[in-house]
Amino acid sequence: MQKSPLEKASFISKLFFSWTTPILRKGYRHHLELSDIYQAPSSDSADHLSEKLEREWDREQASKKKPQLIHALRRCFVWRFVFYGVLLYLGEVTKAVQPVLLGRIIASYDPDNTEERSIAIYLGIGLCLLFIVRTLLLHPAIFGLHHIGMQMRIAMFSLIYKKTLKLSSRVLDKISIGQLISLLSNNLNKFDEGLALAHFIWIAPLQVVLLMGLLWDLLQFSAFCGLGLLIVLVIFQAILGKMMVKYRDKRAAKINERLVITSEVIDNIYSVKAYCWESAMEKIIESLREEELKMTRRSAYMRFFTSSAFFFSGFFVVFLSVLPYTVINGIVLRKIFTTISFCIVLRMSVTRQFPTAVQIWYDSLGMIRKIQDFLQTQEYKVLEYNLMFTGLVMENVTAFWEEGFQELLEKVQLNNDDRKTSNGENHLSFSHLCLVGNPVLKNINLNIKKGEMLAITGSTGAGKTSLLMLILGELEASEGIIKHSGRVSFSSQISWIMPGTIKENIIFGVSYDEYRYKSVVKACQLQEGG
Fold first, then answer.
1. How do the pLDDT tens digits run along the chain, 530 residues long?
2. Distance, CA of 278 to CA of 258 (rounded, Å)
3. 3-class state of residue 8 by DSSP
4. Cβ–Cβ contacts within 10 Å for residue 190, how many?
5. Exposed (0-12), middle (13-18) or buried (19+): which is 331, by Cβ within 10 Å?
6. Which of 55, 200, 255, 446 is surrounded by the fewest CB atoms within 10 Å?
7. How far is Cα 106 from Cα 335, in angstroms, rounded to an integer?
8. Alpha helices by DSSP H, 268-353
9. Which helix (H) or strand (E) holds 70?
């Protein structure tokens, strides 16, 4: 891949997007190949973005009792987000200025209006320049906000991925594939789509104030008739939007439930086939799918009525704004055309941009809270590794698989420490724990030196897997000491194969090394006739 020209593009090139011209010209001449695509800028790399957000998130966790992910995101992206928001607002202001110039150009066609006729050509030039300024403001602003949304999505995607590598096995058992898919795809993709409209939460009200001031100058009290209709439409859209959110949440729950059951069926397909449960599982999944489609249809109906309210409101808003004025003062062509232009912008701000911005903020904050809850889930306890240590030592190790035992043991130790300063008799002891559960491993002592081979045998449930989980840190020791260097290779009894070819599974995303590849093939006896 070629280095991205965006990193070395000048200000003018970024303003007019001329840095995209070479690849567009190449794509016009022939089909683009992978080697023609530019390499992503270093500032957009997953390593850079995840490290930046992870550093701020760690700082947030260390400094506050109740850390908030949104504060970490704010410190990473807020200034560029504000800058592009100001550009977007200035671009939207030009939409309010345009009808003023248009009205004056229309007035210049009146033979009696000598003042406007004398400057008509300047008004036309000003209108053309206004379109150019709007383009130079809006397009870089929208591109920049989409760019920030992409960076936030990549950073949080990487943060979630790193978190999954640190989760304890107890937590991983409770997280379904459907939850992860919903977290990584359905939720995070909204940043790319919606961040460009998030600023309208404050731009739209300012735009309404500006437009109503201009309309008051033209129509006086008649201007509020059209605004009143728009407010009624906003209330109607809010009711429909609330219903749409309810149906969408129910749909998301059904999707998650369907993905969980489908995943369990696939994982246990041998049992399903052996007991002839195909029809029963198919009916369960089809029933969930029907409920999901029902919620999808209802949500689509709400979206249809919301969009209809926007498209059919244009005529009535203009009609209610102009009618009282024309009845009292008669028809003034300049004011009619200017009012129509103002009402079009006003309708867009009130019935489309502002409700969409509210919905985006509601969805985004909810999604950030979900990701924050995931990032605050329990991690496995990192063992104290010593790289100079060559063997493996366990001294009087005891461990429980039952959830909550570690917290109970800490309470026991705290109570035992307080015995010296307290005369009370209500103390917990280790013997009390036997009343509610038995340790899976108790008083284990093990010493393996480098180069030794050891086979552990025993009946099912004897604790062989638990011993390995202790070494890896997946099972936390309640008592005792575990020492090793941290450089441990583990081959699970359940194999995991990545979807793809044998070669792709061996390379596993790294650059192709022919010697290593053939060595692995030979070691695994995958040669033809081998």
1. 555 666 677 778 777 788 788 888 888 888 887 777 777 787 888 888 888 988 888 888 888 778 888 888 888 888 999 999 999 999 888 888 888 887 777 777 777 767 777 787 888 888 888 888 888 888 889 888 988 988 888 898 888 888 887 776 667 767 766 667 767 776 677 777 778 888 888 888 888 888 778 777 777 777 777 777 777 877 887 788 788 878 888 887 888 788 778 878 887 888 888 888 888 888 888 888 898 888 888 888 888 887 777 777 767 777 777 777 777 766 666 777 777 777 778 778 877 788 888 888 888 888 888 888 888 887 766 566 666 777 888 888 888 765 544 554 555 455 555 544 444 444 444 444 444 457 778 888 888 888 888 888 888 778 888 888 888 777 777 788 888 776 777 777 777 777 778 888 888 877 888 888 888 888 888 877 64
2. 15
3. coil
4. 15
5. exposed
6. 55
7. 9
8. 269-274, 278-329, 333-348
9. helix 69-107
Structure tokens at 224: 């509020």
**Any idea which residue has 């995943």 for tokens?**
263
| CA distances to 394, 399, 403, 410, 444 from 406, in Å | 19, 9, 8, 6, 17
Total residues found in the chain within this entry: 530
Buried b (16+ CB within 10 A) or exposed e, 1-29: eeebbbeeeeeeeeeeeebeeeeeeeeee
